[in-house]
């Protein structure tokens, strides 16, 4: 099996709201299991496959959702707090 170009690596990218993402288009169940386990209590839901363009800022960078095919865009799997199905996705959280 070939190695994935973008391994599953969930990270917080929201500044004033809970948003997490991983580079690459991942299986929603695997992504959400990792997201709700790593960020327990954030009420994450509504996973989507999106395309992101990184814009540099003085503080670091912004991640902007753009259309597929936009120059410099890369694939990502995203989810947001209180998005569609968040109550159901919480059930996937793995407790230690």
Helix content: 10-25%
Order of helices and strands: EEHEEEH
Could you say which overall geometry the principal axes of the C-alpha atoms support?
globular
Query: Segments where pLDDT lies below 50 for 5+ residues?
Result: none
Number of DSSP strand runs: 5
Spatial order of the strands forming the largest sheet: 1-2-5-3-4
Structure description:
It contains two helices and five strands; from the N terminus they run E-E-H-E-E-E-H. By secondary structure, the chain is of the alpha+beta class. It starts with 10 loop residues before the first strand and ends in a 6-residue tail after the last helix. It has one domain. The longest helix has 11 residues. The model has no long low-confidence stretch (mean pLDDT 93). 17% of the residues lie in helices and 38% in strands. It is globular, with a radius of gyration of 14 Å. Strand 1 and strand 2 form a beta hairpin. A five-stranded antiparallel β-sheet has the order 1-2-5-3-4.
Provide tags for this entry.
5-stranded antiparallel β-sheet, 96 residues, 38% strand, 2 helices, alpha+beta, globular
Summarize the entry for a quick read.
This protein has 96 residues and is of the alpha+beta class. It is built from 2 helices and 5 strands, in the order E-E-H-E-E-E-H.
Give the SSE layout.
Layout: E1 11-12, E2 19-23, H1 28-38, E3 44-57, E4 60-66, E5 74-81, H2 86-90
Antiparallel strand pairs: 1-2, 2-5, 3-4, 3-5
